[in-house]
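Minutes, project check-in

Agenda point 3 was the complex the collaborators sent over. CS summarized: two entities, 894 residues total, and the question is how they sit relative to each other. Sequences were read into the notes so everyone works from the same version.
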Amino acid sequence: MSLARKRVHYAGRRLAQAVPIVLGIVVMNFLLLQLAPGDAADVLAGEAGSATPEYMAMLRERFGLDQPVWLQLLIYVKNILSLDLGFSFRHNMPVLELIMERLWPTLLLMGATLLLSVGVGILLGLLAAARVNTWRDTFISVLAIISYATPLFWVGLMLIVVFSLKFDWLPATGMESVAMFYEGWDRVVDIARHLVLPAITLSLFYLALYTRLMRAAMLEQYGMDYVVTARAKGVTEQRITFKHVVRNAVLPVVTMAGIQVGSLLGGSVVVESVFGWPGLGLLAFQSLFARDFNLLLGIFFLSACLVILVNLLVDLLYTFLDPRIEMK
Amino acid sequence: MSRTKNKLVSQSHTTTKAGTDSVLESQPLHRSRRDFLKTTGAAGVTILVAGSGLAAVREASAAARKGGTLVHLIQPEVPTLATYLSTSSPVSQGGTRAYSGLLEYDFDLNPQPSLAESWSVSEDGLTAQFKLRKGIKFHDGHPLTSADVKYTIMEVLKQVHPRGPNSFREVQEIETPDEQTVILRLEHPAPYMMTAFSSYESPIVPKHLFEGKDLRNLPYANAPVGSGPYKFVEWKRGQYIRYDRFDDYYKADMPAIDRLVQRSIADSATRTAVLERGEVHLTGFGGVPYSDAVALEKLPHLEVTTDGYEMFSTMVWLEFNTRKAPFDNQKVRQAVAYAMERQWIIDNVWFRFGKVATGPINSNIKHLYTSEVRNYEVADGLEKANQLLDEAGYKRNADGVRFEITHDLTPYGEEWQRFGEYVKQRLDRLGIKVTLRYEDVATWLRRIYTDYDFQVTSNWLHGFADPVIGVHRAYHSRSIRQGTVFVNGSGWSSPETDKLMDDAGVEPDPKRRAELYKEFQQLVVEASPIAWIHEIKFPTVYNNMFSDVITSPLGILGALDRVHLS
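CS then shared the predicted structure for the full assembly.
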């Protein structure tokens, strides 16, 4: 079997295995959410500031909340199997439509953050490890620890204060300039300008992680026998670092990045709320407090799929980075 | 499909206006030139148009009226625009722009003409007649007639609106002898009903689009069609909702601004920052924290007003669970009421955005309010309270503690936590040991209104423009409805007060009605199922590049049709 066919085969099998996993996640999420006291009718009527008892009974009937839990679960699973994510009564819209509207801002922010944090993290880790225990190493490590320890919302607010309010270089909030209605390239530039501050804020935290991880992995690899052998053979330090050590050291970083895609969705809640970024994290957060479980379950379902997909990609990426790893 | 079309139309409209708008809306000044250049470049208009844009600015500053984009910040995020289904603050702020009501109100809550140019109520209070203006149009060009009004009240508001069934409960039948005349036939007099015809409370919806469809699943829930001052254009979820001026609005020369954009930002510090920066121009109803409102007021380009909430009559209070000891005892409830220093709470917890409350009816409702009730805001409140607790038989033990309670906090923001901390410390001086509990909204609502599993909770309710709509629900025995939120949670009622409310609800004579409510207030305040603390004066913050922003007792939930550039 050729390598390409092997990869396709492998991916297909992994995807098939993912179906029961996702289904299990759906059922578990559903049951967990039942533990939260109060329901969507309480919240909707609560927000209205007043309601008649008839109104509330009507809401519950409409939301299907008057049915027993097992029946609600059965109906939900049946719908999921036919890829119907249901209807959000709070937003008066199908869940899928709601999620799709926010999916691409989320992917944009996630993608930018992932690129920035992995890219810069690897670079900084490399720089630190190459001159271990020098001022450069110490400086990078201290920087990493500070950015790791600083709360996201504070970083975000400070960036707004400095770059938006003080210098007026970048817009403070949103994804596009409201009421400007840009087209084409101007729109791309406009969105990119809006993306800078949230992406930096969200990256800082992960960047620190990857820097530390990369540095440690590099140092470990430097101590390996094959490096000693290479040195003995007279290979230059530069070639050892880039050809051998970096390639091996990147593996744990990639693994970590794959795992953190899920938490990136959650971590973006803070950034989305500070910068008014129209992403899924904030939507999930709000729907939890509104007990809008159809929507919340839809988002959970989607992020479960996303995490499984990304991890599959990471596994495939291994085989490129390290041909010794086989697909079984 | 229709949405795409709308967007295209609106965009061609934008291109011609972009130059002028962006200059006018930019704030602070040093930004304007850059934004202006950017926009004109982006819109692909030539220098020629840019030149005329500048000319328009000069003209505008001379006349200082037409044009401009107002960006309104709504907190929390808007879920839908279906104001006929929900009266929640974000839904109403988001959707009311599209609709008109039969009446508007002045700051003393007297009805003013709107869709109806005249109206009358018969002597016996059993008939109300409205005469509509001629030539009113919906946004789709369809005329608005008496048939739409009848349909709205009978089939929409009385059926699916959260408060409509109550406001219009006496309406038996509506006659529409011609296209301009609406006659409401009532079973009993309903003096409160005349306060419920605003575009916020009772939006008139288009019958030709709604009829025969499932009202809870209409496309117009998120793309409203009404006859209001602003026409819905598009909604980018999580980003903005855009309205443009409705050219066929029935009030000539209104609105003066071209466009209204609504946004939401979840973080309160960011909200304050964008107001400061001029990215948004208007917010109210808790859009900025009270502490920030005080700071923003000092900035030259921002104004803070507490006008525009007269129709909500919002009140802060402590609600006792009178079903269980110790608050089943009137003396204990009175003791807590005496212990509260209302003015101190207003000054320190609410940053002076409040007025001392004396009883169940808000002092806004001038014709029905009375201050001749037992006064709990006294200098020697603590002594009185200690004495009452002694009389009630709750003696201090060796540690000076009379009893322990859990105090639930209403989960609507930081000020409630601070208020809770105050209550804890204050009651400690009475020998009442307090544990605070803070949960999320759904959990708290369940606890207070379904499980009744609480002792005393902070709470806030809108009293609205008439006690029948907003006040009865917290005191009437019929309002002890398990599972329904924001009704009578204390569980307290009495046959006398029930009767007074029932009688006042159908009493057409204003003087007699005021007498009934006076007695009601005296009895309820004496029983003290609730310790009323203060009437909230919400701050509305707006950019003073706009004038005539708050012109109605509904404030940002009013029509906003008079706003114009300064």
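Noted in discussion: Strands of chain A lie at 87-88, 93-94.
Follow-up: revisit at the next meeting once the mutant set is ready.
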